[in-house]
Structures are given as structure tokens and as C-alpha cells.
Amino acid sequence: MNTSVAAQRRVFARLSIRAGNALQVGGILAAGFALSAARSANATAIAVIAMVLGWVLLYFCVHAIAHWLVGRIVGIRFRFYTVGGTGNPAGWPPGLRWIFEHLPFLGVQTEKLSMEKASRGARALMWSAGVTSSAIVPTLAVFWALRAGVPWSGWFFLFAVFWSVGTLASNWTSATGDYAKARRALLR
Predict the structure, then answer these.
(1) Confidence of residue 101 (pLDDT cuts 50, 70, 90)
(2) pTM to 2 decimals?
(3) How far is residue 44's CA from residue 3's CA, in Å, rounded to a whole number?
């Protein structure tokens, strides 16, 4: 995330890269446990709650770490994580916009020099990784729940697909979304 975007984003806290990665990996592992519990739960309500919890944890925990992981693979270095509202408020309709500006999303601050040295394609890949993972990973998890026979997973899978399409579309059409940043990176 560049400094101008960070200034627009409502930031609540900063975390070291190590702490941010640990938090996200912990969230991803907790999502796995929740999805496993959903599959083995005896009560429908518990199964549904565990499935939704797993989806939410993945939605919140895969985005920033995907930026970091892909960025590191292509040679981009990072300074710290931020915790704050969405960096793409324009991508949400007015009712959801306020909520998403106040939810604790993780963002990752790039190191300026490594971003300048990175190729256009490397920067575009790094920017695209976050929203792509936010759309695909949680949806695949609900697909797994559907295949595992978790109650209500068929309906929730439809919701997850629509949510993913909305996530991708909002980022594709918004000037502040990750895909817009990737397009700009390709042009510079």
C-alpha cells in the first residue's frame, strides 16, 4: 500500500511484519479448525455458525498476507502491517461502506525503494494477489464445506460466490481498488 492510500484509509494500529503474519496464519488455522468443526458438528446451528466463522476468518486473513507472500516472491519488501478500515471504500455501496471503513482489515506497507526497483509485472502481481485471494480462498472453503455435507452449505456457497463476484467487481471498477493499482503499476 502506498503512503497516499494509507493516508485515506482509517488506520487503527500498526503491526510488525512478524506479528501480522502470525496473526493471519493463526486466523487461517482457526478457519481450518472451524470448517473441520462444521463438518463434524452434531447440531445444524453449530455447523452453520462454524462454517460462517471459517469463511469470515479466511476473508479477513488471506488478503494482506497474499500481498506480502507474492510481493516477497517477486522481490518486494515490506515495512509493517496496518490494521484499519478498507482501503477501497468507494467499492462498497453506501450502507456497507460505513461498516467496511470501520472493520479491522489488515494492509501491508511496502518499502518504497523495493517497489521502485520491482518490475511493472511484479508490482501488478503483488497488488492483484490480495483481492484475488480474498475472493477465491473463502469461496473454495465453502465449496469444500458443500462437498463435505455441511448443513446449509449449498445456500451459503451461493452467497459466497455472489460475495466473491462483488468483491472482484468492486475492485475492478474502483479507482482505489487493488486491481486499479495493478493496472496503474503495469502502465508505469
Answers:
(1) confident
(2) 0.90
(3) 46
